[in-house]
């Protein structure tokens, strides 16, 4: 079984002088699409650029592609007089001043969601793992829910919102939680049951298509993949690749257990939400609940256990180095920890933005 990957990242478009978010009026997308084709696209807010890899055969391919995309977008942005930044929220720009991309789809979402959509000025990482068998994909989604807070804690990179220190390591998900059909999904027994749920929502005009189910993990409505959507966009390529490698390894491990007729325990959404809350609030510096033992455990210890859990699939995937980069992340802190450190040292949010834009293209 080949566990192919796809990675999508959303970047901030930043004015190098003011360090505010700025509308690029689709100039970056127009210019980039000539060299990157459909790997770059506009988002609802004009200060956002989204990129997506082609199908990646393995984690090495994924790293090459995401590095190329970041470097290309950064170079094009600089040629046009902008910078790009990878963080889950901008440290001080206000959503009220940001322009919306003219597009019938976005108009429709704003008409329905109102300020919930207008204020959704956030930047995420989406990781796809190839899985054509829908029933198997659903089984894996059910089991993977337990690990979503762990992945989220590692990705935390949005401690500021509209010029305030929020007290959260990731405020991005607090902004997104205002949308319907977000967060940790419930358990579905089989794909037919999930399909009947989707059909009911379409029939009763809750949604017009399954893309409007924005859970933290989902079976993708178009591609033969399962998609993890809980993470803030990480600041560096190495962090993105580490998280993508962990997700791929988790899919491979749970698939292996299933084919050996072994199952990972599925936990209630209400319990997993307790860990998601802690991950967003404290990142890797807090504790989460080990539901099996019914005790609190340091998040950093749980990360070690996570790596141990997937250890036996890493060599087959060729991703040992990328997964073990987790330990470097635990040592130096997540993007949120590092943003906060710069702010503590300088008391200047423009310096935080400068740090983000520098780190976004570090090593490329």
Could you please describe the fold and organization of this structure?
This protein is α+β, with helices and mostly antiparallel strands and 364 residues long. 48% of the residues lie in helices and 15% in strands. Strands 1, 2, 3, 4, 5, 10 and 11 form a 7-stranded antiparallel β-sheet that branches. The model has no long low-confidence stretch (mean pLDDT 97).
Radius of gyration: 19 Å
What is the arithmetic mean of pLDDT? 97
What is the string of SSEs from the N terminus onward?
EHEEHEHHEHHEEHEHEEEHHEEHHHHH
Percent strand equals 15-25%
Low-confidence stretches are none
**Main pleated sheet:** 7 strands, antiparallel
Structural class: alpha+beta
Fraction of residues in helices? 40-55%
Give the total of beta strands.
13
Principal-axis shape equals globular
Topology of helices and strands:
Elements: E1 5-14, H1 27-36, E2 40-42, E3 48-52, H2 59-79, E4 83-85, H3 104-113, H4 115-118, E5 124-130, H5 134-144, H6 148-155, E6 160-161, E7 164-165, H7 172-176, E8 182-183, H8 191-203, E9 214-215, E10 217-219, E11 225-232, H9 237-259, H10 269-282, E12 287-290, E13 295-298, H11 299-317, H12 320-324, H13 326-332, H14 335-346, H15 349-360
Parallel strand pairs: 8-9
Antiparallel strand pairs: 1-3, 1-4, 1-5, 2-3, 5-11, 6-7, 10-11, 12-13
Helix pairs in contact: 1-2, 2-9, 5-9, 6-10, 9-11, 14-15
């Amino acid at each position: 079984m080949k566990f192919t990957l796809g990675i999508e990242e959303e970047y901030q478009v930043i004015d190098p002088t003011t360090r505010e978010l700025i509308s690029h009026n689709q100039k970056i997308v127009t210019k980039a699409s000539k060299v990157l084709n459909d790997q770059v696209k506009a988002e609802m807010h004009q200060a956002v650029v989204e990129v997506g890899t082609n199908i990646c055969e393995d984690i090495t391919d994924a790293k090459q592609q995401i590095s190329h995309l970041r470097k290309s977008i950064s170079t094009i942005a600089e040629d046009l007089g902008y910078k790009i930044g990878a963080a889950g929220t901008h440290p001080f720009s206000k959503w009220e001043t940001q322009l919306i991309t003219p597009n019938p789809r976005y108009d429709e979402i704003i008409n329905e969601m109102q300020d919930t959509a207008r204020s959704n000025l956030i930047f995420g990482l989406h990781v796809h793992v190839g899985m054509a068998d829908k029933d198997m994909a659903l089984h894996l989604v059910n089991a993977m829910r337990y690990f979503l807070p762990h992945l989220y804690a590692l990705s935390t990179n949005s401690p500021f919102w509209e010029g305030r220190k929020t007290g959260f390591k990731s405020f991005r998900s607090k902004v997104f939680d205002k949308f319907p059909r977000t967060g940790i999904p419930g358990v579905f027994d089989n794909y037919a049951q999930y399909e009947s749920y989707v059909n009911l929502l379409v029939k009763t005009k809750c949604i017009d298509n399954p893309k409007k189910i924005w859970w933290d993990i989902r079976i993708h409505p178009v591609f033969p993949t399962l998609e993890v959507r809980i993470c803030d966009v990480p600041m560096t390529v190495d962090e993105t690749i580490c998280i993508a490698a962990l997700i791929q390894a988790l899919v491979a491990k749970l698939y292996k257990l299933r084919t050996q007729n072994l199952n990972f325990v599925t936990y209630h959404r209400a319990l997993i939400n307790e860990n998601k809350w802690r991950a967003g609030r404290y990142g890797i510096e807090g504790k989460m609940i080990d539901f099996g033992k019914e005790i609190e455990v340091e998040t950093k210890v749980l990360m070690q256990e996570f790596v141990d859990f997937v250890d036996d699939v890493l060599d087959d995937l060729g991703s040992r180095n990328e997964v073990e980069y987790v330990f470097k992340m635990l040592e130096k802190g997540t993007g949120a920890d590092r943003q906060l450190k710069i702010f503590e040292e300088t008391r200047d949010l423009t310096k935080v933005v400068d740090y983000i834009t520098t780190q976004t293209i570090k090593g490329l």
